[in-house]
Amino acid sequence: MNCPECDAELNIPEDAAVGEIVSCGDCGADYEISKKDGSTVEIKEAETVGEDWGE
Amino acid sequence: MSKISIVFDRLRTEEKMLQKEAEELGHEISLIDAKTTQINTDSQIQDFNFGNIVLERCVSYYRGLYFTACLEFLDVPVINKFNVSTICGNKLLTSMLLKKNNIPTPKTHFSFSADAARENLNDTGYPMVIKPVIGSWGRSVVPLKDKDTSDAIIEQREITDGPLDRIFYLQEMIDRPPRDIRVITIGDKAVTAMYRKSSDSFKTNIALGAEPEICEITNEIEGLCASASKAVGGGILGVDLMEDNENGLVVHEVNNTVEFKGLVKVANINIPKEMIEFAINSVRK
User: pTM for the full model?
Assistant: First the structure.
């Protein structure tokens, strides 16, 4: 799968789970894994850090 | 075997560690994305598969808080409870509860307008620390060392003018070593602690790069943390203390959705395992 932003190849680990964030090694864009069915993976743009994020 | 759910909005190292420990302990575990879950006023507990207990682990404070309200509406046991999350997410409420329960805590002043904040600082003098009432990872926590700095920060608040920008939380600057102490409490018991050492900032958040170092849990730390945990309603918490050179240990924060990937590097206990066991045992009682 390629980065929707810069078209570089996205490195998605095999054990990555839905909800996990993957980053593009080239442009740094963050994507959230939205669906995973075997080797089929769907991603969406990750939420940006919100003002209320944290512990 | 019990069934446990983790509600998340961003699957981080912590949630994956909790999942792994639950599985290794032989429990069934579900990861539930708060962002895609639908709940309405006609919803019933049996419409979902939350299991015996939910760990609320959203990185967004408000998302987690209101999801917790929904879980309690459905009578699903959740850690932490809505009231605990409300208090711990709000520094003003936390400071007042700590003081009310005779737990040593930094003296903190509250003002409800920019003019009142200026007047307050005029009376207290400097240095002071201004913190947002709700916020994490040290965001917008600023040492106020002189009037010029405080004027600039207050003016900035007047410009942004969010609802909580009008609430000014002004805390005495504690004279301390360049570190604080983070203690994880599980069911009012301090289970592990670390120093968070900062090399080039007065902020000591691990999220900002502070280095973790194991801290021995003394009787004093244990007692203070138990009291702080009970004061806010208990559960799984991160209690933050400072070593005041003049007055000894003071508790300045109690954190709700505690992060532990920094502490796990130095801790000599299995933190996620302790959390899962506590969660399971809390519904067995």
Answer: 0.93
